[in-house]
Amino acid sequence: ILLMKFDQQYAIYLAAIEKALEHFLPEVQESWPEKGIPKRLNQAMRYSLLAGGKRLRPALLLASYCLLRDDFEVALPFAAALEMIHTYSLIHDDLPGMDDDDLRRGKPTNHKTYGEATAILSGDALLNLAFEIMADCEHPRTIKAMRQIACRTGARGMIAGQMGDICMEGQEPDEKMLHYIHQHKTSDLITCAVLAGLTLADSNEKQLEIGQRFGYHLGMAFQIHDDLSDVMGNQNIMGKRVNKDAEIGKMTWPSVFGIEESQCAAAIHLQKATQSANLFGLKGRFLIQIAEHTFKK
Q1: pTM score > 0.90 for this model?
Q2: Segment 163-170 long-range contacts (CB within 8 Å, at least 24 positions apart)
């Protein structure tokens, strides 16, 4: 894999991820299967999970695993689980009680298609299924990898960031709180992808520390870029509503620092992510490329 071009390598990961998602959440034919997922719930879960996207987080998990080992297939259940957790967070984020969005990746959001109640349940179901999948693995470092994911997607991680995001709507700009929101809402999920991949590959503490720095800075750059896209982006290209942050008074990087300084901050975080990835040597090049690719227009 190391000698392949970036696009070829990413395509391999992407195909493996899509296949794993189909495997772990196959289509249901029966309305109320005795031991399976109810058909309508299955449809709603698949509607959002299989809607496409860059699959950045599961790809990062596989790429991080491949920094140390080549048999990335053993990490696929964790990659699929992480994408399910990410998808559940998006379904809930789009709900009327949260961001109240009508579009996601150019399609009507889950609650617009299946109703609010089913959307809530499909998000809950994806989160639970993710941990079922990981718990079923017999990998010797399953528990450690699950913990990396659970800690950064739960009440002290991603959900804490979402809580901050909601509570700070309409509030006075606060640099410390803005950093808290971005780190937990976005950076934690990206960081846990890297750390789970490294953990499954039996990394040492130094490698985990480097991975943590890479994930943190990439996540911060990603969220600042997302904030900027809401101000400067095109709805038809992005597949979701723009200028919504200002409308509801969200605390974002541009609202606190302005556009120019936000662009500088994103570039600095991306540079620091690159510096961290370089410490993995030649194999770290793919992490750098995946970071750079994420910010291409």
Answers
A1: yes
A2: 165/250, 165/251, 166/98, 168/250, 168/251, 169/248, 169/249, 169/250, 169/251, 170/248, 170/249
